Amino acid sequence: MNQSNEALIKKHVYFNQRFFARWARVYDYEKYILFPIRNKAASLLNLPANSRILDVATGTGAQAYSLAKRDYDVIGIDLSQEMLEQAKKKLAKGLKLKFIHGDATKLPFKDNTFDACSISLALHDMPYEIRFLVLKEMMRVTKSDGKILIVDYLEPHKNYIARLTCMVASLFETPMWKNFIDRGLLSHLNISGLKPEMYATSLNVSQIVICPNKKS
């Protein structure tokens, strides 16, 4: 990794420790608004029971919880200890679910460990270069022909509800959000070499993409 990327990662870690630590408790209330999106994404993954899934940038664990409810074996990982404190409140008997602290640009797992990796409503919070480092790491730890699940904002040009949503989101989202929206999720995937096998929208405000992890 070059020095510029290392400096960017350090800056991103610092931002997470400042911004998300402050808003961790507030973020957990989004589960009441976004649970249909999380549930739809989890249902579309359609893997066998007990499949191992890593939920990257898990935040307060809402997507990881939705996946675990479908009898998957799920680990959620996040940079923010404060977010993870909220996430751990979702641990429940009978769920194969745990949360760990870690950096998504340097995932602490061997190659080909998971049947799938997911990242939900988090790529837009990352600097442009960091997004590709994270996607690369997700691809590395996912088995060949495993699945990469990505959920994020629908771009405003797609429909008027998405346009209104983005207008509201611009008032509270992180500084990295506009760059993500302007470039679009699919352009990020194309640069990363990920080709969607399934594309869906939810509530006309988010997009759900599932890509096979094709390794050369």
From TrEMBL:
Q: Which residues form the Methyltransferase domain?
A: 53-146
Q: Where are the transmembrane segments?
A: none
Q: Which Pfam families does the entry mention?
A: Methyltransf_25
Q: Which Gene3D superfamilies match?
A: Vaccinia Virus protein VP39
Give one GO term, molecular function aspect.
Answer: methyltransferase activity
Under the heading InterPro entries, the entry gives: Methyltransf_25, SAM-dependent_MTases_sf
PANTHER family, sorted: 2-METHOXY-6-POLYPRENYL-1,4-BENZOQUINOL METHYLASE, MITOCHONDRIAL, METHYLTRANSFERASE
**Protein name from the UniProt record:** Methyltransferase domain-containing protein
Source organism per UniProt = Candidatus Gottesmanbacteria bacterium RIFCSPLOWO2_01_FULL_46_21
